[in-house]
Design a protein that fits this description.
About 35% of the residues lie in helices and about 25% in strands. By secondary structure, the chain is α+β, with helices and mostly antiparallel strands. Strand 5 (about 125-135) and strand 6 (about 140-150) form a beta hairpin. Helix 10 crosses helix 11.
Length: about 425
């Protein structure tokens, strides 16, 4: 479960990690319904939040307006913007949505993204930016802390071009984080004076978040070093936290009820419903819906579709424990405006005959309005073949042939629309 920035910062603040003063302005409720007042109401609340922060933070000159989205590169996409605090009278009251914050918020919303909320933050006085993250390293059966004196950048690109700029510390899961490791990282980054102790404490606080909430990733990028020429301090400029889905039930039973899957975390109804169902699903904007068994096979079919010149509408994997959910999987595929559904399986434990029966039942119940290409193989394949043929479907036995058939059908559908 990927948390929004504002949710991650709530966890950070609870662990004692310094975060900027902020206000959250919702555009839609967690269930996806819009808030009262429409866009003009949202802009007025953004401007009001800016005025509140100006009253709360002495000497505040600028606020940062951040779109709350599960995506990287928000700054490059123009979804994180700075706005001056202006339009305030002697009593601190703001002039309304016509102020700078409201204007910038409108420009962000006009970019066409589905944004559930805007985070309005105080703009920190930045002297330096650092990077810090904690994640699992399964290959070495440990956790790994990454840190760099060059924060606010694409860490993957930095690792590729200048790997020496990233410091790595492996943490034994049985011993946990040791004090010398957190302080050693601070020295490795070239920090001096009070920043050494502050950074070591930040590492320990982030470790607390990572372990307490059973996270797969806890990342701060950037860590702001503020007022570097005076009394330096550290502030979490961003928050990226991914909770292990397998831990959600345990966390909620322990009283962490905030970890609920909600519509606002997903780009489409199908993605949200598949998450509730436990079916792996990724939304795209092509015209071939993939309904495959096995993550590796699904990824391979995805690549083959692109190699053949087609485009994928969705990635859906209903193998493993979900192999008897063919009807639910097809319902999710039909929520897309795709022109063909491509079903490819190779089941051993996930039996081909059971999946074929499920596909035929789903077709009978759902009456799909688009062609379906099937390549269902594996355990019980002979029975699967009979089931598909009896239902009037042509079973294919070669994945590449099935992909070519689906791509051709999608192309024909596009030509039909043009004509």
């Amino acid at each position: 479960m990927k948390l929004f920035e504002f949710q991650g910062k709530e966890l950070f603040a609870g662990a004692g990690i310094p975060v900027p003063a902020s206000r959250l302005v919702r555009i839609s409720e967690p269930d996806g319904t819009g808030v009262p007042g429409g866009i003009e109401g949202v802009l007025a609340r953004v401007q009001g939040a800016s005025a509140e922060l100006a009253r709360e933070v002495p000497g505040l000159r600028n606020v940062v307006i951040k779109a709350q989205l599960d995506m990287g590169g928000r700054g490059k996409a123009g979804l994180i913007r700075v706005a001056p605090v202006n339009g305030t009278g002697p009593d601190g009251a703001d002039s309304g949505a016509t102020g700078a914050a409201g204007t910038v918020a409108r420009e962000i919303l006009d970019k066409g993204y589905t944004i559930p909320a805007l985070l309005i933050e105080e703009a920190a006085q930045i002297g330096q930016e650092l990077y810090l993250s904690i994640s699992a390293e399964p290959g070495n059966a440990c956790y790994v802390i990454l840190a760099s004196a060059e924060g606010g950048v694409d860490i993957e690109e930095l690792a590729r071009t200048r790997p020496e700029a990233i410091r790595r510390v492996q943490v034994d899961p049985f011993r946990g984080l040791q004090g010398h490791q957190s302080r050693g990282l601070a020295y490795d980054l070239g920090l001096t004076g009070p920043l050494v102790g502050q950074f070591a404490r930040l590492v320990e606080q982030l470790w607390s978040v990572f372990t307490q909430y059973e996270a797969e990733l806890a990342e701060i990028n950037p860590v702001f070093v503020t007022d570097a020429t005076g009394a330096p301090g550290l502030i979490a400029g961003d928050a990226k936290v991914i909770i292990d889905d397998n831990s959600l039930g345990r966390l909620n039973r322990a009283g962490h009820g905030q970890f609920q899957l909600t519509r606002e975390q997903y780009d489409s109804d199908a993605a949200y419903e598949s998450a509730l169902e436990g079916i792996p699903y990724v939304q795209f904007d092509g015209d071939i819906s993939l309904m495959c068994a096995g993550a590796g096979l699904t990824t391979t079919v995805f690549d083959l579709v692109n190699y053949e010149g087609g485009s994928v509408a969705n990635y859906l994997e209903f193998g493993g424990p979900n192999y008897n959910k063919a009807q639910r999987a097809m319902e999710l595929c039909l929520k897309n405006r795709s022109s063909v559904i491509l079903i490819v399986t190779f089941g051993t434990i996930a039996r081909a005959d059971v999946m074929a029966e499920g596909v035929v039942t789903a077709i009978g119940n759902l009456k799909p309005d688009r062609p379906i290409v099937t390549c269902i193989r594996g355990t019980g394949e002979e029975e699967a073949d009979r089931t598909l043929r009896t239902a009037g479907l042509e079973p294919l036995y070669d994945t590449e042939e099935a992909v070519r058939r689906a791509v051709a059908l999608a192309a024909s559908a596009r030509e039909g629309v043009r004509s």
